[in-house]
Specification:
InterPro entries: Class_I_gatase-like (IPR029062), vWFA_dom_sf (IPR036465). The protein has about 650 residues and is an alpha/beta fold. The chain is built from 14 helices and 37 strands. Helix 7 links the parallel strand 5 and strand 6. Helix 3 packs antiparallel against helix 14, helix 7 packs parallel to helix 12 and helix 8 packs across helix 11. The protein is flat and about 120 Å long.
Length: about 650
């Protein structure tokens, strides 16, 4: 359409200026007027000027591997000589440009340079940015970068020719990575993911992979191949359990040391012993006992439920005192309860209309200036409630709860941690406290049974009462109070070997802590390193290899802007280079690179000038796009031409 309009305008212009065209003295003015009109046309119509052409690149990038593995096989001087041969043997019209590489890409041959790490993908990606005609890669194929170079070559569209150094390397299998939860409960099914890496196999080979007491037969792929194998394990007894992952060793493997992996998982008791005690039975009793009996993780002890003096103290890990009235005649019983709490048991105290705290409870509960008040008390959570995650999504929705009609509370002594407070007066409604080795939670608001009896509440959902008792009992029964644990996947590393960090996060009740912002501060790295959430309270990060010596990292754990804690991990890096663990020609990887780059692979000894003459080059598509409306020089040119036309017309006396 725009072409037709342009032709029509040109015809109309010729008709309008036919007198100027016939007059030879005015043809120059006509050309100027035509140019001005064309400039105006493109400007007013917004037409874009598009020019496409092809450019054949002339510069060939020659990349020389200067890693420690090349030096170990004494290929340094040979690589320099081959670089010279390639530079002089390129097809006519092509120009060589030499680079050296290891952990990155550097200009020049640099024969004296040594790198403790080879990152082929990174070096290739950097050289492709220079838009070479082709790439000639001189290397042994020893690659320990985090990314495969093959997709980088495939996506470039640039021919890659490979010259290999060293004797051909054998094959190897290794346990690359194991994903194991930090904690689990006895008799629960624990999912474990094992990543197996195979390299150098000429054909797919069946191998046995074992994790704990389970095993699977998998097919290790030819060339370079990795696959994930899932295992389901069950631990029947609590305690710290060792998990051994073994990969079958094949005859002729380069190394058997990386066919094994060992880790630790902490198995918690399947059920927590809970004793429910009251000497003032009431409406709370039925709802609390029903919720406890439905909880599969609760081992409910014989209930102490009667009016009068308390005499029996069951053996349990968590005690629930519901609306207790502490009597002087029961001092011995209450003292035995206090001893249990101080030695590591948990205590949940529920207030009620007849609640009478005596010397023992007043000592354990961190409140002073006790008073009982009636009214409507709306529960409002505090930042400290983050510890147990009771009121996060998937937990208790405070908007669904009725207000408490009474409370027996007071002022926080300073040692307690308030989880819920009354919106009307700020008095604690739920407060927790550490009592030597044990823990206590006090619910000051009542009636508590209303949390288990909500109108129109879905039958298939846990009630707020059930959620509260489940989380709180797990919290009170939890002996290990470590919320965050930062570990590296090994205690020591070779120089140049990547370091992987794993952080496990769990709430105080033992539940997984998700949605956290975790940042790592490494001793030798200026920037913070973010950890990626994997799910189930697991976070992970990976950094490149560090210099030899002792190192440490500190993880800062936050929820929104609140700092929840810091945790530290330490490791060492030996002087031995990662490059020295495998030596020789990695033909499998280099063949894949050459195939992806539509080039060839030859050994340094068999390279000929005839092969160099076969090098093909990349043709780059070039495009020029002009938009007159945003080009200042377009307006300048228009003004100059228009001014020139007026000047010439005046000189000829036409104005």
């Amino acid at each position: 359409m725009s072409i037709a309009v342009s032709i029509l305008l040109l015809i109309l212009t010729l008709i309008a200026y036919r007198q100027m065209v016939r007059d030879r003295s005015q043809r120059g003015l006509f050309i100027l007027r035509l140019l001005v009109l064309l400039l105006f046309f493109f400007l007013l119509t917004g037409q874009m000027i598009k020019i496409n052409w092809q450019r054949r690149a002339r510069q060939v990038a020659i990349m020389i591997d200067r890693s420690a593995s090349m030096a170990a096989i004494k290929a340094d001087s040979a690589a320099t000589a081959v670089c010279q041969l390639v530079s002089t043997g390129l097809p006519k019209g092509l120009l060589p440009r030499c680079y050296s590489f290891g952990d990155s890409l550097y200009p020049g041959v640099n024969p004296g340079q040594r790198f403790d790490r080879t990152e082929l993908a990174k070096a290739l990606a950097l050289v492709f940015k220079t838009k070479p005609a082709a790439v000639v890669l001189l290397t042994d194929g020893q690659d320990n970068g985090e990314q495969s170079p093959v997709p980088v070559v495939q996506g470039s569209g640039i021919p890659v020719y490979v010259i290999g150094f060293g004797a051909e390397r054998g094959f190897n299998l290794r346990v690359e990575e194991v994903e194991l939860p930090a904690t689990a409960y006895a008799k629960d099914t624990v999912e474990i993911r094992v990543r197996v890496l195979s390299s150098g196999l000429k054909e797919p080979t069946p191998v046995q992979v074992c994790a704990g007491d389970k095993s699977q037969l998998v097919l290790a792929g030819s060339g370079i191949s990795e696959q994930d194998i899932e295992f389901s394990l069950i631990f029947n007894e609590p305690g710290k359990k060792q998990v051994l992952v073994r990969l079958e060793s094949l005859p002729g493997e380069l190394s058997f040391l990386d066919n094994r992996w060992q880790g630790i998982i902490e198995v918690k008791p399947a059920r927590i012993g809970v004793a429910y005690i009251t000497n003032q039975p009431g409406p709370n009793t039925r709802f609390v006992l029903a919720a406890l009996r439905r909880n599969q993780r609760v081992d409910l002890k014989p209930v102490v439920l009667f009016t009068g003096n308390l005499k029996e103290l069951p053996v349990a890990e968590v005690f629930i005192i519901d609306n207790g009235a502490e009597q002087t005649s029961e001092n011995l019983w209450w003292q035995r309860l206090q001893n249990n709490i101080e030695n590591g048991a948990g205590l949940l105290v529920l207030a009620g209309p007849g609640f009478q705290p005596g010397p023992t409870l007043r000592k354990l509960i961190p409140l002073t200036n006790w008073s009982e008040q009636k009214g409507n008390w709306t529960p409002v959570k505090t930042p400290a409630a983050e510890l147990i995650g009771l009121f996060e999504p998937g937990g208790i929705d405070l908007n669904e709860l009725p207000p408490f009609s009474g409370l027996v509370s007071g002022s926080n002594t300073g040692t307690g941690e308030v989880w819920l407070e009354a919106g009307e007066n700020g008095l604690p409604l739920i407060i927790q406290n550490r009592v030597k080795k044990g823990k206590l939670i006090y619910v000051a608001g009542y009636p508590f049974w209303r949390w288990g009896f909500l109108p129109d509440y879905p039958i298939d959902r846990q009630t707020p009462l059930e959620i509260f008792l489940d989380r709180v009992i797990r919290y009170l029964g939890e002996k290990d109070t470590t919320l965050f644990k930062l570990e590296t996947d090994a205690a020591s590393y070779l120089s140049g070997e990547p370091v992987r960090f794993r952080l496990s996060a769990r709430r105080a009740d033992g539940g997984f802590w998700e949605g956290l912002n975790v940042q790592l501060k490494i001793d030798t790295i200026a920037q913070m390193v973010p950890m990626v959430e994997l799910g189930a309270g697991r976070y992970e990060a990976k950094i490149a290899g560090l210099a030899p010596g002792e190192h440490y990292a500190v993880a800062e754990v936050r929820s929104a802007e609140q700092l929840l804690g810091r945790v530290r991990a330490e490791w060492t890096v030996s002087a031995q280079s990662l490059e020295m663990t495998r030596l020789g020609l990695n033909r499998t990887l280099l063949s894949q690179i050459a195939e992806a780059g539509q080039g060839w692979l030859v050994s340094s000894e068999s390279l000929t000038t005839a092969q160099l003459q076969e090098i093909k080059v990349r043709v780059y598509q070039q495009r020029l796009l002009l938009d007159p409306r945003i080009l200042p020089w377009w307006f300048v040119l228009l003004a100059v031409l228009f001014g020139l036309e007026i000047f010439l017309r005046r000189r000829q006396g036409l104005y």
